[in-house]
Design goal:
The complex is a heterodimer.
Chain A (H helix, E strand, L loop, with lengths): L3 H13 L7 E7 L4 H11 L4 E7 L2 E3 L2 E3 L5 E6 L4 E7 L6 H15 L5 E7 L5 H12 L4 E7 L10 E3 L2 E3 L2 E7 L4 E8 L2 E14 L2 E5 L2 E2 H9 L8 H7 L2 E4 L2 H7 L3 E4 L3 E2 L5 E2 L9 E7 L1 H19 L6 E7 L9 H12 L11 E6 L1 E6 L2 E5 L3 E8 L1
Parallel strand pairs in A: 1-2, 7-8, 21-22
Antiparallel strand pairs in A: 1-5, 2-9, 3-4, 3-22, 6-11, 7-11, 8-23, 9-10, 12-25, 13-14, 13-20, 14-15, 14-19, 16-17, 16-20, 18-19, 21-25, 23-24
Chain B lengths: L2 H57 L4 H16 L3 E6 L12 E3 L8 H12 L7 E5 L1 H6 L4 E10 L5 E10 L11 H48 L1 E7 L5 E3 L1 H6 L11 H5 L4 H15 L6 E8 L5 E12 L5 E10 L1 H57 L5 H31 L8 E4 H19 L2 E5 L7 E4 L1 H17 L5 E9 L5 E10 L6 H5 L14 H4 L5 H11 L4 E6 L3 E11 L25 E5 L3 H11 L5 E5 L2 H10 L4 E5 L7 H9 L10 E5 L4 H10 L3 E4 L4 H14 L1
Parallel strand pairs in B: 12-14, 18-19, 18-20, 20-21, 21-22
Antiparallel strand pairs in B: 1-2, 1-5, 3-4, 4-5, 6-7, 6-10, 8-9, 9-10, 11-13, 14-15, 15-17, 16-17
Chain lengths: ~375, ~750
């Protein structure tokens, strides 16, 4: 549906029917939508409801996956043990402070928060610092899950929606304080690092200025066989996942010795925007996709999650997927197959639980018991009732 | 291996490794290109899927507005751009001021007026039936449009006239999120435009179909209402399967609900009145055999409540190519009410007939009464007038003579009144018959003038007559009735004129083939008639002005009514023009047929008696049951020398004729015992001269029928009572001379 108001009306009808009572609506919509109209219609139909959302490259719902310019999906949440916080102006250099401030807002509302759905701009942000900022308030045991917003892989701008506002460098967080709820998170990618690593020879915060002693963008694209002058992030993201080496203990859990990173933006001067802080001397491998491994790792992850679920079925599932794992990675049939493989194990008698997924720039999921930022992964957040 | 030897080998190995890595990354890029291509194909498939979905949805658009909105929304849905516009042209081929529908368009993108102006400049240069173009940023910015890319498709009428535009595009604000439009998208856009054009054309056709469907529906509705209103039932009998359909109205006619009777032939057959069954089956059989074009059967069917209702069934068999009846379909109409109405109508007609009969009887009785009265009055009047005439022949003093004259005139006036009443009675009863016998009109007019002249002279007024001189003017008509009219009108004119003149003009007009046309105009210089009186002039018993001294002029007031009625019966009409104090003009025109040349016209005998010899010789037998009448006749004739014998009834008359010798018999008609007719028949049977004796009817019945009966019984001539002495002697003289 192309008309934003009509689209969200259909979504609300499908999600809530005639009983539109809820406290929070979380929505994701692709870049062709008018986000203010979407939020306005939700608030018009459900007076007093809080609305949070993000731009994305596609959505995943119970009905399946879609990656057009006009997709929208939502999850309606009811309950008093919720906290919603947001702020604007979060970047790579202030991610810790801003995230900490966000966490404080949440804690002020609900001290007993045990898990936090976090969403921030996917461009020019230090997600590791953001995690640290939140943990500085709630401690490392709070589970942070969520994603970073995206555009349609242009690396131009992404949007965050909070009630009647739309931000380009904002962040919002929803804290769940219901003690009967818990979330199980895991991420998987299935890529293989190849060749000799590039070495970060100069970096500032989240920006890589030089690789192998050469301007970062030039070195990076030349290794990818792209024209540095003409290539965009849209060209490099699908083929240019960068891999950092994981410690052996984490590699075992992850099923892969590398964690992936993405270049979300490049400056006119050739600096590459990384999604976490990057230190000079870090070795970065180029990667290749391995479809068999992608499916195998997905199966392995879902089996692990089902095992951890102990026979329970989730009451809701949030899902963050890397925009490079959608239409840019797999054809439609394989993509739907992959989504099916993640949804089926969590389904009950074939009925997919309430599911809200999006294709963003990055994903948050715990790894080795630690809140971790991922790229190029499928991250599943299954909410269980204890 | 030495270091020197190892170094080149390592370098070669490293070079190969780098090459391998480049190939791996190159492989990734190529693989990505393949994925992208696959994705584009998916997108393309998706677009066509959405075009299909749109087409399906648009087919059900219930209005042009809804269709336009669907098109604009579909532009965004299919091509995933920012703005969709659906813009129509007017009849003159100019774009309307605003698009019919827009989607994603926001204020600030550009004004519709500016877009329209730019579009018109682009579209008019295109000459092909459908045109497409993709506008890029430079052109759009030059046109001051805040668009980065735009696809425009124009679809046209087969004659070339542009019908509508489809526009989709992206504004500068979101340009970074979109790739340049590819040829694939352009191709899809062409397909989409063609699809919208087809749907648009279909809508026009659909509108026609919808209108026809609506008309058909309304027609069916009207038919249904008419059927329900008319309570016509239907039956449909499939002869092959034996299945029969009986409509709810068919069943309702017999008092049943639809589900109370099973629709089959027995439902009809078992309810036909026993007296109608054989005939009904015969009619069905004849129609099936093709002996009748339409099956029509008026028969009775048993109602649920036990009584029978009259039903008119009409139907027609549908036949195959060999003429065999395959299906028999028809209607069934309860005509019990019509039957009841018919019965009531018949009763009403019977009552009417009886009433008419009664009226006719009454009229007949009235006529008989009037005729009887006429007879009964004329008989004593015959005595009165006769005696007065005889008295006038005696020696009287001038005063006595004057008194006798007045008495005679009064008696004659009374007779005229009786005559008029008799005539109007016959007219009202419709019993006047107009004869079509040859006569000479000129002679008639001359005769009438002769008759009326003495009246005019008595009042010292002039009576003039102007008629084209013709040697002979023979026509077919009722001479007696025309004379009556002329005498009446001229008589009236003389009566109401004290000085001056009365004039009769007869003019010949243009006659039709074998007909003469005559206009009669009677003009007087009398008292004239007021306009108010003219309105009622021809009504019976009306004597013109109420303030006129009618007693002075006397009369019944029936003359004009009788004249008008007689003229109408003769095919003419009468008009009158009059001015109070200056006189009147009565005018009528008659178209009378010419008799064939061979037809002889009897010479008109003047009513004036011919010259009577002072002395007559002969034996006269007077037969009358009235002693007075016998005496009057005897006293009138004996002074002339005639021998008069008397008989008081027919039987005595016949007896006397057998024994005696007579020259003329004067025979009264109505007498007790043997009447005059019977007596005449007996006399005519007598042998020799006796059987040929002139028998002159002497009757107080002046109606044509009675006079005709006189001649039918064998009488020679007739005289009406009261008898004028001169007339009597003239007749006697005439027949004596013959004998």
């Amino acid at each position: 549906m192309v008309n934003s108001r009509h689209a969200i009306q259909e979504c609300l009808e499908a999600a809530l029917g005639s009983d539109k009572k809820c406290d929070l609506v979380m929505l994701h919509a692709s870049i062709g939508h008018d986000y203010l109209v979407l939020a306005d219609e939700v608030r018009r139909q459900i007076p007093g409801v809080r609305v949070v959302g993000a731009s994305c490259c596609g959505i995943v719902g119970c009905e399946g996956v879609s990656e057009s310019m006009k997709d929208v999906a939502l999850m309606a949440v009811r309950g008093p043990e919720l906290a919603v916080a947001h702020l604007d102006g979060i970047y790579g250099h202030n991610a810790f402070e801003k995230a900490a401030e966000l966490a404080r807002q949440l804690k002020a509302q609900q001290p007993g928060i045990t898990m936090i759905h976090f969403l921030a701009s996917g461009i020019d942000i230090a997600n590791d610092r953001a995690i640290a900022g939140i943990e500085s308030v709630f401690g490392p045991d709070v589970t942070i899950f969520g994603a970073t917003s995206s555009d349609n892989m242009r690396g131009v701008v992404s949007y965050q929606i909070v009630d009647d506002q739309v931000f380009e460098h904002g962040a919002w967080a929803v804290g769940f304080a219901d003690p009967s709820l818990e979330v199980d998170t895991q991420a998987t990618h299935g890529f293989l690092a190849v060749g000799e690593p590039m070495v970060v020879t100069r970096a500032e915060g989240t920006r890589i200025l030089e690789l192998n002693g050469r301007p970062a963008w030039q070195e990076y694209t030349s290794l990818l066989g792209l024209d540095p002058e003409k290539a965009t992030c849209g060209d490099s993201i699908p083929v240019g996942a960068l891999a950092e080496e994981l410690p052996a203990r984490l590699a075992l859990e992850y099923g892969n010795p590398h964690i992936l990173r993405v270049v979300t933006k490049r400056d006119a001067g050739g600096a590459m925007h990384y999604a976490t802080t990057i230190r000079e001397g870090t070795r970065l491998w180029l990667t290749v996709r391995d479809e068999e491994r992608i499916f195998a790792d997905m199966g392995r992850m879902m089996a692990a999650m089902v095992e951890r679920g102990g026979g329970r079925k989730p009451v809701a599932v949030f899902h963050a997927d890397c925009l490079a794992r959608g239409r840019y990675l797999l054809n439609r049939v394989m993509k739907e197959e992959l989504v099916g493989r993640m949804q089926f194990p969590l389904s009950s008698d074939g009925v997919v639980p309430p599911w809200l997924g999006m294709y963003g720039f990055g994903e948050f999921a715990r790894l080795g018991g630690v809140n971790t930022y991922h790229n190029y992964t499928t991250a599943i957040y299954a909410i269980y009732r204890r | 291996m030495t270091d020197k030897e190892e170094t080149p080998a390592l370098a070669v190995l490293k070079q190969s490794y780098d090459e391998l890595q480049r190939r791996v990354t190159r492989f990734s890029v190529v693989e990505q290109e393949l994925i992208d291509m696959r994705n584009r194909l998916d997108c393309e498939l998706g677009r066509f899927g959405r075009i299909h979905a749109f087409s399906t949805q648009a087919l059900h658009a219930d209005s042009d507005e809804a269709f336009a909105i669907m098109v604009a929304d579909a532009l965004l849905d299919v091509f995933e751009l920012e703005v969709g516009l659906f813009w129509l042209f007017d009849e003159q081929g100019r774009l309307l001021s605003e698009p019919a529908a827009s989607s994603g368009f926001r204020a600030g993108h550009a004004s519709f007026e500016r877009i329209r102006s730019w579009l018109e400049s682009r579209i008019t240069v295109q000459e092909d039936k459908a045109c497409f173009f993709a506008a890029e940023r430079p052109e759009l910015q030059q046109a001051a449009l805040d668009f980065s890319q735009m696809l425009v498709g124009c679809y046209r009428h087969p004659g070339g006239k542009p019908l509508g535009l489809l526009i989709t595009g992206i504004t500068m604000a979101v340009a970074d999120f979109h790739d340049a439009l590819s040829e694939n998208e352009a191709q899809s856009f062409r397909v989409f435009t063609a699809q919208v054009a087809a749907l648009y054309a279909n809508r026009a056709s659909a509108a026609i179909i919808r209108r026809q469907m609506t008309d058909l529906h309304e027609s069916e509705e009207r038919l249904s209402l008419a059927v329900k209103g008319s309570e016509i039932g239907f039956w449909d009998w499939c002869l092959d399967s034996g299945a029969m359909v009986l409509s709810p109205e068919w069943k309702a006619t017999l008092g049943y609900h639809d589900n109370e009777i099973v629709s089959n032939l027995d439902a009809w057959h078992s309810r036909v009145h026993p007296e109608d069954l054989d005939r009904s089956l015969q009619l069905v059989s004849e129609h099936m055999a093709g002996m009748t074009e339409i099956y029509e059967n008026l028969h009775r069917l048993r109602h649920k409540e036990g009584h029978y209702v009259w039903v008119m069934a009409r139907g027609r068999a549908l036949r195959d190519e060999k003429g065999r009846a395959r299906r028999f379909v028809g209607t069934h109409l309860d005509i019990s009410r019509q039957k009841a109405l018919e019965e009531r109508l018949r009763e009403a007609e019977e009552l009417q007939r009886q009433a008419r009969q009664q009226a006719e009887s009454a009229s007949q009785a009235k006529s008989v009464f009037v005729a009887s009265m006429s007879h009964e009055i004329r008989t004593p009047m015959n005595g009165v007038i006769g005696m007065l005439q005889l008295l006038q022949d005696t020696s009287l003093t001038p005063v006595q003579s004057s008194l006798v004259t007045i008495a005679e005139q009064s008696a004659t006036a009374l007779l005229d009144i009786i005559g008029d009443i008799l005539d109007i009675s016959k007219v009202e009863a419709g019993r006047v018959e107009i004869k079509h016998e040859p006569f000479d009109l000129q002679a008639l007019v001359k005769n009438v003038i002769q008759l009326m002249r003495h009246r005019a002279e008595a009042k010292d007024i002039q009576l003039e007559c102007h008629m084209p001189k013709q040697r002979e003017c023979r026509v077919l008509g009722d001479e007696g009735r025309l004379r009556q009219v002329l005498i009446n009108l001229i008589g009236n004119a003389i009566k109401f004129t004290d000085r001056g003149s009365v004039r009769l003009d007869v003019k010949t007009g243009r006659g039709a083939i074998n007909r003469h046309s005559f206009t009669f105009c009677i003009t007087d210089t009398g008292v004239g008639i007021s306009p108010q009186a003219l309105e009622h002039l021809f009504e019976p018993f009306n004597q013109g002005d109420s303030n006129l001294n009618v007693r002075k002029y006397a009369g019944t007031g029936l003359g004009l009514a009788i004249s008008q009625a007689l003229l109408r019966l003769m095919g003419g009409d009468i008009t009158v023009a009059s001015k109070k104090g200056t006189g009147s003009e009565f005018r009528f025109t008659l178209s009378l047929p010419r008799p064939s040349p061979s037809t002889s016209v009897p010479l008109l005998e003047s009513d004036l008696p011919a010259a009577i010899p002072e002395r007559l010789t002969g034996r006269i037998l007077v037969v009358d049951d009235s002693q007075t009448s016998r005496m009057v006749a005897k006293l009138m004739m004996e002074p002339t020398g005639l021998k008069v014998d008397l008989a008081f009834d027919g039987e005595e008359a016949v007896s006397k004729v057998k024994k005696g010798r007579y020259d003329v018999i004067l025979m009264d008609c109505q007498m007790p015992g043997m009447d005059g007719y019977e007596a005449t028949r007996h006399i005519r049977k007598l042998p020799g001269k006796r059987g040929r004796l002139p028998v002159i009817a002497l009757t107080a019945n002046v109606e044509t029928g009675f006079i005709g009966e006189c001649y039918a019984s064998g009488m020679t001539d007739h005289l009406c009572k009261p008898v004028q002495k001169t007339s009597l002697l003239a007749k006697i003289s005439h027949y004596l001379a013959e004998s």
